Amino acid sequence: MIRCREIGPADLDAVANLLTRGFVRRSRDHWVNGLQRMAAREIPEGFPRFGYMLDNQGTPVGVLLLIYSAQGDASGAAIRCNLSSWYVEPAYRSYAPMLTSVAQRHKHVTYVNISPAHWTWRTIEAQGFHAYCSGQFFSFPALSHVPEGMRVEVVQADAEVIDGMSEADVALLARHAACGCLSLACRTADGRTFPFVLQSMSLRRLAPIAMRLIYCRDVADYVACAGAIGRFLLRHGRFVVAVDANGRMPDLIGFYRRRRGRKYFKGPQRPRLADLSDTELVIYGP
């Protein structure tokens, strides 16, 4: 009687209950708020809005949340899917492969797993995934040089136009600000404007002082603007920014940790570093 099907709006309460049982450190409100954001966001046509569930006579006994987004092209030519939270009730674990096989069946989609527990790495690799990020560099941006005339502005959720920035970048900054991220526009003296999205980290020891870099166009942009961003954050009590990296970043002051922050992908397009936009970290929270 077990079948795998798409999660629909009528399933959300039961799915939130299941996830609350499966992830004991997460409150029910955490899942409800994230599912509400999923219900309202735009997704590429033809893909599930929430993900898939194992249905036992109308009751969810397993779930795999999926977050689809069009990358760089509104036509949907490049589709990314964030394989998010996975949980199956112990009595139904033998049916778990149904979820993963259905969820990963599109060959033209790039699937990413950005929060794998270290004990799952071998299993993920056996499924054909490859690591594209091996760790995180914890930078101290306030110690970087600030180019003359560079300034940082906060972008609010209702922003529509920003001088020197494309409509797509403005929409991204506003969308992420609405999800509780810190969206910034960094302006240079020669008129260039760079978008950045940062988010508070959930690690208990680092939460009061650290931010995670969610998005920038290129890691080189962060290196160039690190000093101005660091001075801005320092005024708000934050002095560490974690950046996805594959080793030390010689142009920044900080330290690299290999076991924290590994991320995997499977599909036609290798994800770039410093782009966690519209992923589970944003939609569901850190």
UniProtKB/TrEMBL annotation:
Entry keyword set: Acyltransferase, Transferase
Domain of life: Bacteria
GO molecular function, one term: acyltransferase activity
Protein name: Acyl-CoA acyltransferase
Organism, as annotated: Bradyrhizobium jicamae
